[in-house]
Amino acid sequence: MNPAPTTLRLTERQPTLAASELLGHLAPPPQFAHASLQNYVPDPAHPSQAEAVEAIRRFAEGAPDAAPTGLRGLFARRTPVVVEKAGIYLDGGFGVGKTHLLAALWHRVGGRKYFGTFIEYTALVGALGYQQAVQQFRGARLIAIDEFELDDPGDTMVMSRLLGELVASGSRIAATSNTPPHALGEGRFAAQDFLREINALADRFDIRRIDGEDYRKRDIEGHAVALTPEELDARLAAETGQVTVDRFDEVLTHLSTVHPSRYIGLIEGLSAIALTEVAPLRNQTDALRLVALVDRLYDAQIRILATGTPLDRVFTDDMLAGGYRKKYLRATSRMIALTTAS
Fold this sequence. Notes:
InterPro entries: ATPase_AFG1-like, P-loop_NTPase. One of its GO terms (molecular function) is ATP hydrolysis activity. This is Cell division protein ZapE. Keywords: ATP-binding, Cell cycle, Cell division, Nucleotide-binding. It comes from Microcella alkalica. The chain is of the alpha/beta class. The protein has 2 domains: 7-17 and 216-340, Rossmann fold; 44-212, 3-Layer(aba) Sandwich (Rossmann fold), CATH 3.40.50. The chain contains 13 helices and 9 strands. The strands form 2 sheets. A 5-stranded parallel beta sheet has the order 3-4-5-2-6, with helices on both faces. Strands 1-7-8-9 form a 4-stranded parallel beta sheet. It is globular and about 60 Å long.
């Protein structure tokens, strides 16, 4: 294959992002820069979508400027004082507009605020250190967390402590996930060991279920596009922006050398990435790294050109039957969208 002159290799990129740069990225992705409650279009076949819009509107209007009285923390061991819910939690399937609504809330609320994925927050805590992270976020009016998932006990404890301190400082929390908060961690680790913390977190949220069809699949075929080598050459020749071309297995190896919080730097400035010789994944670690990369590609709306196995078939049946099923299905949905984008 003879790539176009503008092509690069993803595997040659070694992004480094300082903590200040990570903080600077805590805003809605470009595709949601203009998200609002007005331009979210609820599906009339699913009334829960319109109900979620109203819930977000009420939550935005009630965002306090000062800490609610009587809160010792999100995960206090005693019976909590009954107060207005400190958070809102949008639970639903893929492509029903949860991130759009979260971004709309972020735009609607004034003051100091942050928007990021769960992995971005945990990575930032790792980069800054826990106490510095608390000081950075303390007193923020809104902490918006997209794709809230607890994949291991360490993340569970870090986020439970962090959110507890932030709620006590007056912050309100808004989150989206494909998993109801009481079920976070199921099938991934000994969730029963952390059930008290997980339930305390859930009790602080106004939980809103959003039903509906994945909008990314409404008008496209249900499979990711796989190109022939000749078709890929033609597509690369027509590209005007920066494109990387790499073998799929080499990208997976390279991802193991880059922290997921820095994947955003890995793809910065690209218009598309090309993955050649795509094949089914061999282990869960590679699968989870691919999910993290796909999330960043989707946020930045960077197209995927691929040869070999269609990307919606790279997760094995065993993977899809396990505790990370919802992550893999979300990534599949996004890879279908990114490989069919014009």
